[in-house]
Write a structure and sequence with these properties.
The protein has 161 residues and is an alpha+beta fold. Helices cover 60% and strands 11% of the residues. The protein is globular and about 60 Å long.
Length: 161
Amino acid sequence: MIKIQILPNGSVFFDQVEESFYQILFSIREPVESGDPLVESRLFPQPSEDVEEGDLLDDWKSLVEPDLHENFLAARESVAADLRNAQHNSDGSLHFTIPRNHIDLWLSALNQARLALAEIHQFTDADLSRAPQDLDDPREFALMRMGIYGSLQEWLVAVVG
């Protein structure tokens, strides 16, 4: 069972993390970086669908979107770096720390992954309100990942708040 401790400096220490759970966290980048156009349009929606707003759309594409890409990538890279710093315990489990100043980056990366998984697998509200069934099915495994990412998001928000 995972043990979680809030350190005096506000960082979050995870201990007794099973390899399978660690891999689910480590794979947070995959759906976002899949190259799927649905993911791209979900994470970077246009500010208007009105084609007569050409200047607005051009400004958005050249001035806003690059910063969004950069910030989203920085969040995913921060999570990956924190997870690469994980160390093995003598029992084969792992431990790692989310530094206090990385919690917002984790929240961003977790949200990106959840949105990307939802788009890739076209999850409906009915899908999202049920437990995953056969985890050998990629879609069901993605549903489980979304649940894990969402639970971790909720928990980190509670810690930050």
